[in-house]
Specification:
Blueprint lengths: L15 H19 L3 H4 L4 H14 L4 H10 L2 H5 L3 H10 L11 H14 L11 H14 L5 H23 L2 H12 L7 H8 L7 H15 L8 H8 L1
Length: about 240
């Protein structure tokens, strides 16, 4: 791969102000894009939306498709009563990938089933303060005996934050949209291939808001070499 950042030789501290402005826009665009699936988001009930996003979070990008297939094939009540034969059928019939953190899809599927068996989908957690929302989901993962902090943070980022943002847009409640942003800022930063590449050019993530924003900026501008659409790129190229 060529340099991830075409402007890396020119970035300096004076560009950090533009970067901070870009982060907020990047998060807004990222959450809008994640909730722009008309086939799901337009007509979904609140309960199904939460189940859908939960499945996507547990499936991650690697196995989102079989997890979507799972909740479209079985009702929540049926999933809560899955036995070993049902699990084996799903693992055989659906196209699971074994890649990276998903080398063991059987374990992730079991974690998902354990979570939905103990989770109250009718509890209105979005009305709680951000700090209590975080505590609530920590307790839910403990109740389901899921000990992975990585999976908890992944769930918070890809389900809870997205759901609150979606609900805020659906109900036209700015307070919920702002809460989604604040919640994202309260989740630990991610450490992955892209955050490490940003660190190589001196840009660090303080929290998940930063790491998600930097991922979106890379995908929308750096990867596409869309420098003239990027605030930093315009500063570097045009002055």
């Amino acid at each position: 791969m060529h340099s991830l950042f075409p402007c890396k030789s020119f970035i300096s501290e004076k560009h950090l102000v533009e970067l901070e402005i870009m982060k907020f826009k990047a998060i807004e665009n990222r959450l809008k894009r994640k909730t722009n699936n008309e086939g799901v988001f337009e007509k979904a009930s609140d309960d199904f939306m939460l189940l859908y996003l939960s499945a996507c979070a547990f499936g991650a990008s690697v196995n989102q498709q079989p997890f979507e297939q799972l909740i479209n094939t079985y009702t929540l009540d049926k999933l809560k009563n899955f036995d070993i034969n049902s699990m084996n059928k799903v693992l055989t019939d659906f196209l699971w990938k074994r890649k990276g953190s998903f080398s063991n899809p059987e374990k992730r599927l079991q974690q998902f089933l354990d979570f939905i068996r103990t989770f109250n989908f009718e509890f209105q957690f979005w009305g709680l303060p951000v700090s209590i929302i975080l505590m609530h989901f920590e307790q839910q993962f403990k109740k389901a005996k899921i000990k992975s902090a990585f999976l908890l943070n992944t769930y918070l980022i890809n389900c809870v934050v997205v759901y609150i943002f979606w609900k805020g847009n659906k109900q036209n409640e700015l307070q919920l949209i702002e809460k989604a942003f604040k919640l994202l800022s309260s989740i630990p930063n991610e450490s992955n291939y892209f955050t490490r590449k940003w660190e190589n050019i001196g840009i660090y993530s303080k929290n998940a808001f930063d790491s998600q924003a930097l991922l979106e900026i890379y995908k929308q501008f750096c990867f596409r070499k869309a420098c003239l659409d990027c605030e930093i790129g315009k500063k570097v190229l045009i002055g």
